[in-house]
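In this section we walk through a basic example: taking a raw amino acid sequence and producing a predicted 3D structure, encoded as discrete structure tokens. The instruction is simple. Fold the sequence below.
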Amino acid sequence: MATATATRGGLTATSPAAVGRRGRGLLVGLAVALVMVLVWEGVKFLGGTPWRAPLAQPGSPILWNPPFRWAFANDLNLPHVWNILLTFGEPFQRGADRSVAQFLFDAAVYTWREAAIGFVIGALIGLVLATLFVHSRLLERALVPYVVASQTVPIIALAPLIVFAFGANVMSVVVIATYLTFFPVTIAMIRGLRSFDPRALELMRSYAATRTTIYRRLRLPASLPYLFTALKIAATASVVGAIIGEGPGGIANGLGRVIITYNQYYITGPEKLWAAIIASGLLGIAFYGLVVAIERLALRGRRPAEA
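The resulting token sequence is shown next.
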């Protein structure tokens, strides 16, 4: 039996066609990851340093001697993928009880909490600004250029200033995450709050509907696809902002500090820094996936935009 019925003009998000599209997208993502690994190890195979057993010490027996020597493909710049994966099971520091995987998981959860707070605050600020702009052309013309200009300054330059203003604490990290979140929501919702059917607006005005009623019953429901598109962008941006802010913010428990620490000891253990980078990427993907799951619940039964 079909997983869902067709809606007028398209298919629901749980129809066989939609499920097939999601399955193909997952396969494409896995294929891209596999190609990256093959290219990485192919470069090592042709021009890396002599291969030894995984996590072997210098001087151990050589298993493969590449025909070329490319400086960028040495074990310091490009560790073997299997060495990076095996590092997750090692102690995060000498004599520690926790493994690198446990250590990175705890740090990722801490960073996600900061990012999530900034994400929620930034989304609310973006929604409020967009609401003001769609109801006031004067405010839109006056302030939208400044909203756009605010994103032209690199966050790496603003982070120390924000930390100086709010102090070296979690608050400064949340502010940085909020700063990167509000912009995509604001711009997308300006468009989304105007994406309703004009005939529906005429009908509601004929019934003397107030601006508040029109906003709740017409503008906001019509803007949900735009909102979730912006939230998916903002989810990953908030994670990036939190990681960047944890450095100057003096946060000792998040991924930002872990990356800085492992970078300082990169020569003795490059695999740990790569493991931290992978953990950061997985955190962003997980946050993105969470927003996608909420989107599917909220827009369940709606016709896809591309249909």
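Looking at the output, two observations stand out. The chain has two domains: 10-78, 96-298. The first helix runs from residue 16 to 47. In the next section we compare this with other chains.
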